[in-house]
């Protein structure tokens, strides 16, 4: 028996073409019996391959065409261009707030025909009709993360702190990374390319999902009122040479840090030094606590801390590098010290009488680099939200980071131009990066950045009014 209704795999299609090409006189029925297929499926695979091939006598050309066939043995449930297809597309438009499967249930109640969600998506994305010769792509609502009481309290405290800083004239530099997908979207979300500010029919500018060709990560920073170029960094995979250089750099830093800590431990044993006073203060506190416990009859005694405990030392390590991703070291070497800190100094030089704060979220590379860079930041008087004395960035709060909505504008402007790129060669990757860089520096995106940044005070006030919750719009 043939496999009626099943998709014909690439291996079976190649086998059909191979048998038909090399065995002269073999019938489609014989091929179907050998491969357990339907006779009409074998015939359709062969005829479609011959029709698509530029040279039907070229075996390799036939194989390539056979492998590229899409469901050769399966008829579509709904034909493109028919009244049935147009009616279903109209139902999708009439119920665009409902999921595709819900629209399929409505159509089933009307006609008695049961359609799957995949078929509904194909009708919306791939079919066309005279009234709507474009793809119907639904908008995607952003997910609002659920917040606990601690999250809302932290958001509330941060919003109050930020409002007070803004009233004092403080300037915030928002930074973050995002993933750019060329040829599709990494989370399979549809893309709307409606020009900014227009109120035309949303479906006119919608583009369906396309298979992802490649992705790359970018880092950017935004600040209000900055007329110069905003920093941007394209992340690439770390080479073996760069990994070896990082190992040598960390070994050198660890040796220097170890020497500094050893010197502190030695000075802690010498009278009159700062380290000796620190050790003496700790010893006095331990003695006072032990005396208090002895007088009150409390059990347990605290032990004196030697210099090794007072001045500990830990080696700087990178951990597992098999996935070749972004860690604290790359963030420090390639972003903080190359892009962010120089940009911070430029902003601070332009506004010498104002506080300038760096805003980063709680991604692991950010928090780890902030801890390891604390002494460096103190030496250069760099203010950051995650530093001691700062409020800390509240978890699950992308709505308070004003660079997040900027990604949508950047990708909406770049995505239509990505559709002209094909392949994933180094040349194509460079072209995609050039498109991102051009759009990032364009007046349209810069205007959008200013608009989003100006909404920061309003967003903070809304967060305060909602008690730190994120169930507000605007």
Automatic annotation (TrEMBL):
Residues 305-316 have a biased composition (Basic and acidic residues). InterPro entries: RNaseH_sf (IPR036397), Tc1-like_DDE_dom (IPR038717). Keywords: Coiled coil. Pfam families: DDE_3 (PF13358). The keyword Coiled coil applies. GO terms for molecular function: nucleic acid binding. The keyword Phosphoprotein does not apply. Residues 287-316 are annotated as: Disordered. Residues 293-304 have a biased composition (Basic residues). Residues 236-263 form a coiled coil. Residues 346-418 form the Tc1-like transposase DDE domain. This is Tc1-like transposase DDE domain-containing protein. The lineage of its organism: Eukaryota, Fungi, Dikarya, Ascomycota, Pezizomycotina.
């Amino acid at each position: 028996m043939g496999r009626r209704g099943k998709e014909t795999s690439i291996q079976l299609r190649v086998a059909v073409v191979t048998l038909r090409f090399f065995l002269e006189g073999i019938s489609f029925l014989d091929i179907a019996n050998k491969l357990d297929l339907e006779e009409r499926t074998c015939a359709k695979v062969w005829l479609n391959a011959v029709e698509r091939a530029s040279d039907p006598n070229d075996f390799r050309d036939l194989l390539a065409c056979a492998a590229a066939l899409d469901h050769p043995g399966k008829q579509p449930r709904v034909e493109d261009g028919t009244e049935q297809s147009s009616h279903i597309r109209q139902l999708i438009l009439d119920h665009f707030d409902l999921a595709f499967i819900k629209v399929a249930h409505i159509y089933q109640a009307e006609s008695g025909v049961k359609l799957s969600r995949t078929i509904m998506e194909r009708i919306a994305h791939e079919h066309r009709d005279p009234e709507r010769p474009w793809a119907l792509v639904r908008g995607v609502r952003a997910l609002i993360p659920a917040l606990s009481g601690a999250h809302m309290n932290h958001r509330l405290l941060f919003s109050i702190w930020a409002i007070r800083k803004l009233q004092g004239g403080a300037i915030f530099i928002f930074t973050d990374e995002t993933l750019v997908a060329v040829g599709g979207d990494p989370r399979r979300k549809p893309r709307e390319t409606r020009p900014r500010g227009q109120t035309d029919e949303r479906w006119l500018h919608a583009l369906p999902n396309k298979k992802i060709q490649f992705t790359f990560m970018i880092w950017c920073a935004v600040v209000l009122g900055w007329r110069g170029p905003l920093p941007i960094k394209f992340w690439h995979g770390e080479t073996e040479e760069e990994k070896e250089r990082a190992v040598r750099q960390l070994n050198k830093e660890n040796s220097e840090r170890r020497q500094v800590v050893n010197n502190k431990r030695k000075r802690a044993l010498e009278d009159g030094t700062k380290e000796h006073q620190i050790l003496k203060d700790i010893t006095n506190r331990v003695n006072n606590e032990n005396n208090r416990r002895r007088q009150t009859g409390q059990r347990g005694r605290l032990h004196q801390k030697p210099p090794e405990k007072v001045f500990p030392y830990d080696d700087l390590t990178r951990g597992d590098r098999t996935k070749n991703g972004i860690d604290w070291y790359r963030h420090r070497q390639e972003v903080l010290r190359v892009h962010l800190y120089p940009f911070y100094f430029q902003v601070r030089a332009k506004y010498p009488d104002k506080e300038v704060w760096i805003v980063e979220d709680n991604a692991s590379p950010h928090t780890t680099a902030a801890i390891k860079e604390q002494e460096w930041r103190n030496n250069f008087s760099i203010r950051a939200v995650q530093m001691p004395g700062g409020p800390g960035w509240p978890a699950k709060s992308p709505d308070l980071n004003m660079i997040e909505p900027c990604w949508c504008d950047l990708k909406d402007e770049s995505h239509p131009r990505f559709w002209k790129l094909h392949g994933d060669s180094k040349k194509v990757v460079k072209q995609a990066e050039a498109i991102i860089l051009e759009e990032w520096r364009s007046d349209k995106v810069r205007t959008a950045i200013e608009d989003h940044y100006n909404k920061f005070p309003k967003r903070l006030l809304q967060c305060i009014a909602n008690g730190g919750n994120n169930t507000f719009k605007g």
